[in-house]
Each structure stands twice: as C-alpha cells, then as structure tokens.
Amino acid sequence: MRSGFFHSYHLGWSRADALVLLGELEESGLRIAHPATGRVLLDSHDPASPDNWAGTRSRVTREQYLSIAGLERLHAVGVRLWVRHDLDILMRMRRAGNRAVAVEFGLGGLPAHELENVVRAAGRAVGRASLLCVGFVLDRTGASAGADWDGLVVTGTALLDGWPDAVAVREDIASRHPQLTAMESVARSPWRVFGSAALSI
Q1: Phi, psi of 171 (to 5 degrees)
Q2: What is the mean pLDDT of residues 5-28?
Q3: 20 to 30 A from 107, CA-CA: which of 8, 87, 137, 189?
Q4: pTM of the entire predicted model
C-alpha cells in the first residue's frame, strides 16, 4: 500500500529558504524537535518506499540540521516532523535534477483530521519559504506515486499515468503539456492548478 504525499518544487533553494520553511512550519505547529525530548532526528527513509521499510535515523541539533538543509553539499536530507508528541511524518528535501529542489512530505499514517492540518500547513509554508516555488503535487492516498512528478512539474516533459488530488505547474508548462491542455484548471498565480482539490489548495 502506498502512502500519500505532498511535494513542492523550488528553484534557487538555499539554507535561508530552509530556515524560512522551518519557521513557517513551526508557526503551524509542525516541529522538527520532539515536543517532549527536544530531539531532532535525521531520517534516510525515502517517502516513496513502502511503509515497512525503515530508514537510518541519527540524532542532530537544530543548527546541524539547518547547516545541511540548504543542500549545498548533499543530494538529499530527511528529518522527522512532529505533528504531536506521539505522531510524526517524514519531511525530505532533495535535488530534483540540476534545476530544482523538491520538498517532500510523507502523509502516511495520519488520521484524517491531522492529514488535512498537515496539508494546509505544508501548503502555506512552501509558498512562503521560496518565491521560486514552480509547482506542487498533493496526493492524499499515494495513487499517483509512480508518476514522474519531477519531470512533469519542473520540465513539463513527463506524462501522467495516475492522477493526484491536485497538481500545480507554471503557466508555460500548462499551455504546452499534451494532457494538461485538455483539462480544466484554476488560475492561482504563478501556477495553473489541476485536479479535484484545485479549489481547496
């Protein structure tokens, strides 16, 4: 069974963007430090992998995490993001080709109410963290996890074989992509948003 996810894509990602993202998430109640212990856990788990695969976890300080979250020296970094003291998800930042960084939130295991809170918080946070957010994908069930979202959102070259709740792309990609040009969308500058949840994002 696949887990849901929210991915956003950013150009010009830096440590400063990661710091703003973290601040926005924390304002919404999502924290990288455990509410009781204060521990920050890096996690090498891939959100697209099956739920029963456990990544390697290591404890770091907040400052150590921020020093690598700009991805100047690493291809990817994941951290546990605490929704409450007994519930967490994985947030991962990774290079998505030469041009972009993907910020990924795994949504597996969240009760419905918490899932919607996380989706709203992540959506607000990524929009404020980087002025160069070129698009995003929301799939609450993970049905479209096999799609090449990097190729669709960043370059507009990939085709869809599954459909998420919502996908946002730049206007230039929306106007030339063979599948998207035939679909209804909502204008949400600087993007076109497609899918059943387009109006609620």
Answers
A1: -55, -40
A2: 92
A3: 189
A4: 0.91
